């Protein structure tokens, strides 16, 4: 099993919204993935000219721990989907999303649903 890295578009949005975690892999300004798989050259996301490419699960954890936004993935017979839950400490605000494949209204994989869910969650962050 291999962890899925976030896409270039998600990486740009994450940096814009304040994600400053260390990442072994990075996208350059042209969207080319570079880095080391050994973890010897971790750089924070503030590193100029590049965008951190953490795993989907690491970004999901950052959203949950830093911004109280939970990205939930679920499936049914039609495919995969996501919904977002955000709390302010006392109230939970739920944002339901069932977007995905145009034909079925769902995503074809867990990772596709999670990637879109991460992007939508990042958009909820006010900076």
Q: How would you characterize the overall build of this protein?
A:
- It is a single chain.
- The chain is α+β, with helices and mostly antiparallel strands and 127 residues long.
- The chain has one domain (8-123).
- 28% of the residues lie in helices and 26% in strands.
- The chain contains 3 helices and 6 strands, in the order αβββαβββα.
- The strands form 2 sheets. The chain has a 3-stranded antiparallel β-sheet with strand order 2-1-3. It has a 3-stranded antiparallel β-sheet with strand order 4-5-6.
- Strand 1 (25-28) and strand 2 (33-35) form a beta hairpin.
- The radius of gyration is 15 Å and the shape is globular.
- The chain starts with 7 loop residues before the first helix and ends with a helix.
- The model has no long low-confidence stretch (mean pLDDT 83).
Question: Brief description of this entry?
Answer:
By secondary structure, the protein is an alpha+beta fold. 28% of the residues lie in helices and 26% in strands.
């Amino acid at each position: 099993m291999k962890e899925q890295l976030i896409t270039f578009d998600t990486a740009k949005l994450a940096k814009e919204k304040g994600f400053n975690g260390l990442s072994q892999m990075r996208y350059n300004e042209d969207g080319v993935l570079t880095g080391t798989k050994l973890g010897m050259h971790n750089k924070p996301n503030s590193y100029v000219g590049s965008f951190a490419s953490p795993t989907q699960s690491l970004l999901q954890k950052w959203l949950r721990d830093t911004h109280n936004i939970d990205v939930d993935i679920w499936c049914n017979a039609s495919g995969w989907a996501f919904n977002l839950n955000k709390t302010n400490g006392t109230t939970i605000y739920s944002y339901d999303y069932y977007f995905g494949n145009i034909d079925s209204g769902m995503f074809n994989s867990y990772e596709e649903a999670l990637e879109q869910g991460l992007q939508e969650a990042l958009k909820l962050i006010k900076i």
